[in-house]
Specification:
Distance between the termini: 95 Å
Order of helices and strands: HHHHHHHEEEHHEEEEEEHHHE
Number of helices: 12
CATH topology of the largest domain: Phosphatase 2c, domain 1
Number of domains: 2
Strand content: 5-15%
CATH superfamily of the largest domain: PPM-type phosphatase domain
Helix content: 55-70%
Shape: elongated
Strand order of the largest sheet: 1-10-9-6-7
Structural class: alpha+beta
Largest sheet: 5 strands, antiparallel
CATH class of the largest domain: Alpha Beta
Radius of gyration: 33 Å
CATH architecture of the largest domain: 4-Layer Sandwich
Length: 462
């Protein structure tokens, strides 16, 4: 016959175990899984609930050797449950003076291991003092020493609620452990009440935090959508329509907002300017730098400067306005009437020119120094010739560095064959097939993946 006390412990254990499982589910399914409160609480509550059930119904219903085994298992589970409880405490309290919280956790872990060894070899497992006694002694000692040393926990809005719950649970935990120490009976009565109070306190805190974080997440989502629209506005809405050129471009950011940029700042009866840039990093900061690049480049073009001078001014702008921010860029100026082009690159992948007459892919290699390293760096122009039927490709490194799941890069070695195979395709069709091939190159099964932003411009010289 199960006593009312054991029935209460069993019911409390089942409820606490359920709360622990729900907490873990909430942690792993939430977009805000960086919050570890639910994780530690779930890892604490689940095993703790199982320990209460083992301590009450199962031990009472069974007997003899089965009782001893269940007692041992339940007690070990309960002791291990205190470790995530301490991690939960550290989540709110901080690391303490000279990492005192870390030392407290390790001391308790060692005492649990020692207790487990004694319980396995000792005939009377109930008579072994609980390692929880170390917490009863060391937790108040740590709080007192930290206070005297001048340590202050990190500021939290819900501090009073949190510490009321933790204090009441610790108080009931201490009472039951001291009772076990004095009488030798493994008696748990007050502790579940303290745990339920702690659960209510944490439930209040978590609900407040989740509501606040969800509101913050929604605000950030709106801001990211706005930033994405702004970035789309700085990219060309249409391709230039110029005699002697057929132009296509593809822009495939890895995230909603990226640091890749391309544009066509120089246009004339037979002249075309193309810039492709890649700002280090991702997200809103990189996109802001990309918008600064557009302003600087178009300013240089308005002054009819050569590619090297435009890249030089862009470098000085980055060094002055965004110190420590690095970027790569390449600027190409084409004169169709003379069949002459000029380009200047700053740490950027070399433009690739497919020479139709000799059926060969030629890299225009002269990389130069990254943008944003030295303000006084000078950049020079390099001249090249082109003919009708040639094709020019400007791109960011996300194109050639795309990798298979096995780690094999798409690389420059794949491009010559692709150019030769698709040389008769119009620029738009060529660009679409190239992007499709690169994305499938880095696919994991049927799921397309990419590890970097992919941007490229195709210019057919006709």
């Amino acid at each position: 016959m199960i006593s009312q006390e054991n029935l209460f412990l069993a019911m409390a254990g089942a409820a606490i175990f359920t709360v622990g499982v729900l907490s873990l589910c909430g942690h792993f399914t939430s977009v805000l899984s960086r919050e570890r409160i639910l994780l530690w609480f779930g890892l604490f509550a689940g095993p703790y609930g199982i320990a209460l059930i083992c301590h009450s119904v199962l031990v009472t219903a069974w007997g003899g050797k089965a009782e001893a085994i269940l007692l041992l298992v339940g007690r070990l589970i309960g002791l291990l449950a205190s470790i995530p409880a301490l991690l939960l405490f550290r989540e709110f309290y901080g690391s303490g003076w000279r990492l005192s919280t870390k030392w407290l956790i390790w001391i308790y872990v060692l005492s649990v291991l020692g207790s487990a060894v004694f319980m396995m070899v000792h005939e009377h497992a109930r008579s072994i003092p609980s390692p929880g006694i170390t917490l009863v002694i060391l937790v108040p000692l740590e709080l007192a020493l930290d206070r005297l040393a001048g340590y202050r926990p990190p500021p939290l809005k819900e501090r009073p609620v949190i510490f009321v719950g933790l204090f009441l649970f610790f108080l009931t935990y201490a009472c039951d452990r001291l009772s076990h120490w004095e009488t030798g009976h493994d008696h748990i009565f007050l502790e579940p009440f303290g745990f339920l109070i702690l659960t209510f306190c944490l439930g209040y805190v978590v609900s407040r935090r989740v509501a606040s974080n969800e509101s913050e997440w929604m605000s950030m989502s709106h801001e990211m959508r706005a930033a994405s629209k702004i970035q789309a506005a700085i990219l060309p809405a249409t391709m230039p329509k110029l005699t002697g050129y057929s132009i296509a471009a593809r822009y495939a950011p890895m995230t909603a907002v990226a640091g890749d940029f391309y544009s066509f700042p120089e246009r004339g009866p037979a002249c075309l300017g193309v810039i492709v840039a890649d700002v280090m990093g991702h997200g809103v900061p990189a996109a802001l730098i990309a918008s600064m690049i557009k302003v600087s480049v178009f300013s240089g073009v308005d002054k009819h400067e050569r590619p090297g001078a435009i890249i030089g001014e862009l470098n000085m702008m980055l060094c002055r306005e965004a110190p420590s921010q690095l970027a790569t860029a390449v600027y190409v100026s084409l004169d169709r009437s003379r069949g002459i082009g000029q380009y200047c690159a700053a740490g950027h992948p070399a433009p690739l020119l497919w020479r139709h007459s000799i059926q060969k892919l030629v890299p225009l290699a002269d990389p130069g120094l990254l943008l944003g390293v030295r303000a006084e760096e000078s950049f020079t122009d390099t001249e090249f010739h082109f003919e009708a039927g040639d094709r020019l490709l400007l791109y960011t490194d996300g194109l050639t560095e795309a990798e298979t799941p096995a780690g094999q890069s798409y690389g420059d070695a794949q491009l010559p064959a692709f150019f030769a195979e698709h040389q008769g395709a119009p620029s738009e069709q060529f660009a679409s097939r190239l992007l499709e091939e690169v994305l499938h190159w880095s696919a994991n099964g049927s799921e397309l993946q990419q590890a970097d932003d992919i941007t490229f411009v195709v210019v057919d010289l006709i």
